[in-house]
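Justification of resources, computational component.

The compute hours requested in this renewal are based largely on the per-chain cost of generating structure records like the one below. Each record pairs the submitted sequence with a full structure-token output. That output is archived, and it is also reused by downstream analysis tasks.
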Amino acid sequence: MQIIDTSKYAIKKGWHQFIIKNKEFFKISNLKKHLLGLIIATILLISNIILAYNLGYLTNHTTLYEATPYVVLLIIAFILYLLRLYLTNKKSSSDLIIVIYLFFMFWELSYKLGWVQNDLLIPSPEGLFYVYKTDNTYIREMVFDSLQLLFFGFLLAIVFGTILGLIVGWFERLREVFIPISNAITLIPPMLMTAWLIMWFPFKEAAIAIIFLAVFWPVFLGMTSRVAQIDKKIIDAAKVMGVSNIGMLYKVILPYSLPGIITSVSKSLRGAFMCLVAAEMIGINGGIGFYTETYKAYADYRRVLAGIVTIGFITTIIDIIVNKIEKTVVKWKV
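The structure output for this chain reads:
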């Protein structure tokens, strides 16, 4: 009964906050603040669509592509802009979409007016985003492969880095032994180990090992230093209450160190994904890096650029998710 009451209270509270947010956002004074940016963004969206469908090519090009996938992207960007504007209520949302639309407009005009005539190295916007129509299934498979490897490697690194960091950080003699060794190892870029790891492990296991090395040492060192710096008054208070050494680690020190762990995760995750992509390009037979490297060998730079755009999109989403988790999970800083 208490759980039901609590859930009802949470729903009521959430609905109440939603109504308040709507009232604040849709105030006439607030809407006026965003009106100019919204009008400019809408005009630029319509202009880009007109350019894509109606402006002809003034110079000859080897291949012309359907404009619909590109236009769909422009519309999706506008929807995301409206969502961001509603959630943040910041003028910078309009500034961002305006810059993006101006960039695409300049790109489109450069291509169709003949300022850019190299179809091989610089594709048109339609040519680039048409890749996502023709290679949709293949790109999704490659992205899934990359994220799967990232998940397992990252999870292993976080678990082992946290546990070992807790233990080493708690015992001073262990810190004196392992911290100098760890500091030396962290100076070695994980990518230097790629060729060697590929010789020892199958392709996917080698990729997981690279991610593990990229994430483990920062998490381990961060955890170790965090535990070593814990206020002695906290430890003494826990001992007075009869907390054992094992209990001290997971009841006192782990919660105390949680903000540091989340911060280490947020700093390491993007780097881990970039290490994975680089490893896929060097020798791992799978993933979005492998997709990009494969088409580079065939000089298909439309698909190479599509791979680069996909990598940039994924790293951005990863960053947003991790920052959101950090703000949601960690409510305190010590």
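The longest helix spans residues 245-282. The chain has two domains: 17-134, 136-329.
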